Amino acid sequence: MTERKAFALRIDPALWAEIERWAADELRSTNGQVEYLLREAVKRRRGGADTTGTVTEPPVP
What we know:
The chain is an all-alpha fold. It has a domain at 13-45. Helices cover 48% and strands 0% of the residues. The chain has 2 helices and no strands. Helix 1 (13-25) packs across helix 2 (30-45). The longest helix has 16 residues, at 30-45. The protein is globular, with a radius of gyration of 13 Å.
């Protein structure tokens, strides 16, 4: 398994509760949901490239 970086995150309790609900809706852990959201944000910032550097099409709105 890939080594993961652990870190403390300060977050508004209402935002955390929303992420917990969203994670439950998508059958993910809260930690998995946060990682998914960060990965998607990085992908969009890179213009559609995933975290391995492979270029993908941006999502259709």
